[in-house]
Amino acid sequence: MSINSPICSSSPKTNIDQSIELLNSVSKFDLGGRCTRNGQERIIFNGLTSSCQVLGLYFSAHWCPPCKAFTPQLIETYWNLKEEGRQFEIIFVSSDRSESSYQSYLSCMPWLAIPYTYSTIRSSLATLYNIQGIPSLLLLNCKNTPSLELITYEGRYEVSEDPEGDLFPWYPRLVNILSPRHCPKLYQSPALILFIEGEDEDEIEFAETVLVATAEFCNSNLIQDRPLLFFVSTHKSINDQFRSHLRISTSYPYVALVDLPRHRFSQLQNENVINKNVLINFVKSYFSKDTTFQNLTSLSQPDGLDESAVTMEMSEEIFL
Questions:
Q1: CATH architecture assignment, domain 13-161
Q2: Beta carbons of 29 and 278 less than 8 angstroms apart
Q3: Are 147 and 200 in contact (CB under 8 A)?
Q4: N or C terminus: fewer CB in 10 A for the chain?
Q5: Could you tell me where in the chain the CATH 3.40.30.10 domains are found?
Q6: Which pTM value belongs to this model?
Q7: Which of 205, 191, 189, 211 is nearest to 266 (CA)?
Q8: Tens digit of each residue's pLDDT (9 = 90 or more) over 221-243
Q9: b/e map of 83-110 (b: 16 or more CB within 10 Å)?
Q10: pLDDT tens by residue, 76-113
Q11: Which architecture does CATH list for 176-310?
C-alpha cells in the first residue's frame, strides 16, 4: 500500500454553486437498468448527496468506442466499492445523439442519470467542468453537503490504474508513479524523477518516502515560481527512453530534474546514497538557481517522448 499522502483539492466556488444549482434543477434522476434502487423512488440531488460521500459525474456516450470499453471497468470498480460499504454514487451525463441510444446505454448501468430531455443541464455541466473529451469521470466530495469539493478530474485514469479502488477516492497525491498519462504534464512543469528498475514494492515505498519528504519540504519552505512535480519512474519503456535521450549510463536508482519546458535537465551526481536530505539539497539548489543544467532537445519536441511506445492498454479519448 502506498504511503503517499493525498493533497486536498479545492474547487472554485462559482463552479460548485453552479453545479449544485444545475443538479438541483433535475426533478427526478433516471435509474440505470442494473440499478438496485426502487424504480418508484423519486431521487433528487439533495436526497442523493445526503446518503453518499463521493459523487462521480460520468460524461459518456453509447456511440463512443472508448466509452463502451471503459464503462464495464467502471461498473466493476463501482460494485467493488459498494460491496466494501463505500458511500459512492455516480450520475451519468450523456452525450448520446438520440434518446433511444441513451436508453440502450443506460440499460447496462447500475447508477443514476440525468434524463435525456435535460439537454441544457447536460451541456451546461460539460461546459462548467470544461469537459473536452469522453469518457470523463470527475469526482466530487459530498461530505460537507450542501457544499461540494472537487476531488479529481482524472477518475477515468484512476479507475483504469486502480480498479480495486485501493486509493479511492483518488485525491491528488504529492508523488505519483510516472505512467503514460502523466507524460504530457512533463511538457508543462519541471519534475524531479527518481528512476528505479522494476516494480519491487519495497523499492517503490522507499522512493515514495524520500520524495514525499522532499515534496513536503518544498511546499512548506520554498517559494516556487513554477510548481515542481515529483515522480517515481518504474515503467521500462519510459525509463529506457529517458536513459537514451538523457544519455544516462548510471545504474539504478538515479535521480534527474527534468525541465522540458526550458529544454534542460540535471542529473544528481556523485551521490552513493539517495535519501531525503540529499534530495532536499538538490531541490534547494534548483530553486536558488545554483543547479548546473545540460541542454535537452530531443524530448522537448512534441514527438520526442514517444507516447505510442509507452501507451498502456487504455483506450483513446474522443474529443467533443
A1: 3-Layer(aba) Sandwich (3.40)
A2: no
A3: no
A4: N
A5: 13-161, 176-310
A6: 0.80
A7: 191
A8: 887 777 899 999 999 999 999 98
A9: eeebebbbbbbbbbeeeebbbebbeebb
A10: 999 999 999 999 999 999 999 999 999 999 999 999 99
A11: 3-Layer(aba) Sandwich (3.40)
